[in-house]
Design goal:
Helix content is 47%, strand content 17%. The chain is α/β, with parallel strands linked by helices and 507 residues long. Strands 1-2-3-5-4 form a five-stranded mixed β-barrel. A five-stranded parallel beta sheet has the order 7-6-8-9-10, with helices on both faces. Strand 9 (282-286), helix 8 (294-298) and strand 10 form a beta-alpha-beta unit. The longest helix is centred in the last third of the chain and has 43 residues, at 358-400.
């Protein structure tokens, strides 16, 4: 029977006892306080099925534990119904149908219960870990332990708690960085497995138990660290980095189940960063199958439990033996088939003539050798003959290209070419003299001096410009007339621009 089932049963019993006790105390006069050190607690005070005996008159001021608990219960009930705001943690639905959780804020926590008969009416929407809610109900006391709890009758949702809100923001940031997309394969046969957890935790014992079942002597290296509480996230991150530097092939980060706060170490950014930076694959085995942490998303492989993590990285010795036996049997079959084939091959060869009569083999090899020798001799003679012919050709070509021969040939050609060149030169000179004479006569015929000799003259201005028309002359202008013999200088007194027939108007 769980805690709150006891509380429900005892609540009704204690209410009746307290009522009777208050009535009895009202009829008795108050007793004097007993001296210190003389009070005794009736052992039967722990028997919750009987009314506690009345204390001795001398100890009337001393309460039994049951009386104290009853007084606390009475005062808590005097508060009536209360409304408490907080964050849900450690949410659990029992097999009996009751719902249990812890309502907490930054400094305190209170146990809460919703009886099976009130679950449907109390919760309009399903409760979630980390939800911020307002719980309406009454306070009750569990007398065997002297603890109190809130019996919830109605729950009002106030949105996600601060922890979950922070976690969701961190998930969005890491998803944008691509930290959730990597999935490196876990080695099938790692040389050494690293484990990050507390040596005193159940997770470590579960890991060792699984190893003893699968491969008892398999190499496992533990890095002890805190997995809960302030500063534990930094410890886990350092443990991961340390194990990665020791040569392990895979790292398992394991922890048992718990509430959201208990597992919050594995939701910290520093742990996620250490997993992402780890050079070897990381297997996350935090909590139970229903627990989800940030490290599960960043790790290369998520195991539902520490036991599942051990099964993931530690090979099963029996399976390996079975595989080896299967491979060995297959290898034996292959060897047997190979030997059988080689045996048949040898039997076939033994039946051939070459093995039955070795003399035939020697004679065959001798014939092959003789034939090869003859072919080599013929090939050698052929190559020597070709080389001799080639050498003779080289000698002829070399003699033909001798400097003495070439100089003699050049002299012979020079003797033939010299007279021809002389005749060609004389003919060319004669031809050019004739042409020069003709050109001189032509020049002489068109020379200005020849024209002047026939009675013509040239008139020029003082600046040397020839006058072609009377219009170009001006009165008073000095001109020069060039004759065949001499020059005449004059001044223009007038001009006649008429025709050349002598009938102009001016003199």
């Amino acid at each position: 029977m769980d805690l709150f089932d006891h509380a429900a049963r005892e609540a009704a019993q204690e209410a009746a006892r307290q009522k009777a006790e208050r009535a009895a105390q009202g009829q008795r006069a108050p007793a004097s306080r007993a001296p210190a050190g003389r009070s005794e607690v009736d052992p039967r005070a722990h028997d919750f099925d009987e009314e506690p005996p009345e204390p001795d008159e001398r100890d009337a001021g001393v309460l039994t534990v049951t009386q104290l608990t009853g007084e606390i219960e009475r005062r808590l009930k005097d508060l009536g119904r209360v409304a408490v705001e907080g964050e849900i943690s450690g949410l659990k639905k029992a097999g009996s149908g009751h719902v249990y959780f812890t309502l907490k804020d930054g400094q305190s926590a209170v146990s809460c219960a919703i009886w099976r008969s009130r679950v449907a009416a109390a919760t309009r929407t399903p409760l979630e870990e980390g939800q911020r809610v307002v719980c309406h109900g009454r306070l009750d006391v569990y007398k065997p332990r002297g603890s109190y709890s809130l019996i919830v009758e109605r729950v009002e949702r106030r949105g996600l708690g601060e922890l979950l809100a922070r976690l969701e923001k961190l998930k969005v940031d890491l998803r944008e960085k691509g930290w959730f997309d990597r999935s490196r394969p876990v080695p099938d046969m790692p040389k050494c497995v690293g484990v990050v957890t507390s040596r005193d935790a159940d997770a470590w014992r579960d890991f060792l138990r699984t190893r003893s079942l699968r491969w008892p002597a398999y190499p496992v290296r533990l890095r002890h660290t805190r997995v809960q509480g302030p500063g534990s996230a930094q410890d886990v991150a350092r443990a991961i980095a340390h194990l990665a530097s020791t040569g392990v092939d895979v790292i398992c980060v394991v922890r048992g189940g718990g509430s959201l706060e208990d597992l919050w170490t594995f939701n910290e950014a520093v742990v996620a960063e250490a997993v992402w930076a780890c050079p070897v694959p990381v297997v996350s085995g935090v909590g139970h199958e229903s627990d989800h942490t940030l490290i599960d998303l960043v790790a290369d492989h998520r195991a539902h439990t520490p036991t599942d993590a051990a099964q993931t990285v530690i090979p099963d010795l029996r399976e390996r033996r079975t595989q080896l036996e299967r491979h060995g049997a297959h290898l034996d079959d292959v060897v047997d088939r190979l030997l059988e084939g080689r045996t048949r091959r040898l039997i076939d060869l033994s039946k051939r003539r070459v093995l039955r009569d070795t003399r035939w083999l020697v004679e065959d090899r001798a014939r092959a050798w003789s034939d090869l020798s003859r072919r080599l001799r013929l090939a050698g003679e052929s190559r020597l003959d070709r080389a001799a012919r080639t050498l003779a050709g080289f000698r002829v070509r070399l003699a033909d290209r001798s400097p003495v021969v070439r100089v003699g040939r050049a002299r012979e050609r020079l003797g033939r070419v010299g007279p021809a060149l002389q005749r060609s030169a004389e003919l060319a000179l004669s031809t050019r003299a004739t042409r020069l004479e003709i050109a001189g006569k032509a020049l002489e015929a068109i020379s200005p001096l020849a024209v002047l000799e026939r009675g013509y003259s040239i008139t020029r201005t003082a600046d040397g410009r020839a006058l072609r028309s009377a219009d170009e002359a001006t009165t008073g202008q000095e001109i020069e007339t060039i004759l065949h013999a001499g020059r005449v200088r004059s001044t223009v007194t007038g001009s006649d621009a008429g025709s050349m027939d002598g009938k102009g108007a001016g003199e």
